[in-house]
Fold this protein.
Amino acid sequence: MPDTEILVTMPRRGVVTTFFDEERVRRLESIGRVHWNKTGRQLTPDELCRAIRGIDICITGWDSPCLDEAVMACADRLRLLAHTGGSVNGYVSDALYRRGVRVVSGNRVFAESVAEGTVAYMLAALRRIPHYSTGLANGRWPQTFSNRGLLERSVGIVGYGTIAQYLVEMLAPFRCRVQVYSRHIEPAELQRTGMTRADLPALFAGCDIVSLHTGLTAATRHLITEPLLRSMKPGALLVNTARGAIVDEAALCRVLADRPDLTAVLDVYEQEPLPADHPLCGLPNVLLMPHQAGPTIDRRPAVADSLLDDIEAFLSGSALRCEISRRYAAVMTAR
């Protein structure tokens, strides 16, 4: 609609170009008049207050200011917020939802890519791909092999949000037996997927692989305790692509040092970037990744496509596929 005013808060260089290439810029600009952030940096809250007057649709990204009460007091026409990140917690506010502003994000596209990354991490750790590849590159042909597979493993999933739902679908061809810890999963979903519900002690003690997918909130900080980690069965694998602080990281270091039979793949940490002298860096039974589970760079245009689809659907009065409700936003990981 030509009279639709659209604000993109992200600076028009760098990260924003990985989402909006020339094709998607043209598509966005065909929807309405686009106001780009030409400062070369993120807007300050005061700048956002000034820029958002008269705006119908606001597009935000990582490190954008929160649309809090002060900003919403200036948002006299705002009807839709489209966030290029996954979680909107820390970018939206009660004031925004009270005004009836709809919210969409790249959460579903992000989630599918993170689930793919989780499967890749499981396979890399079980098959010891980094170990054998590094050894061979240094001229060492192994005399014995200790690689394992994902087929028919028991997998415990902590949290059952969008990422976990995609992960369960991706594990199906491997014929994994899946247990889930979640307070929100419906019996019908358990029946549909063939999963079983488990509490945390049973899940950690009984599964070959434990994969973490809960959001980080006050209730889930250090949810994974030292007793849970020590209870893991011999040869078990822990994968964390959620948030570092869900695990008691100091306890994890102690357990991994004491239990060389255990393996961990960590994509997230309590402090990021991970300090070079962190105890995790010296452990042979941990695979460390720099918060790269997803979305992979090539999926960022797909995030833009999903948001553009929903912007067009919103303007035509159609259903939104990537909407984030107020209730869902509250349980997402805060930035």
Q: What stands out?
A: The chain has a mean pLDDT of 96. The CA atoms of residues 18 and 298 lie 8 Å apart. The two ends are 33 Å apart (CA to CA).
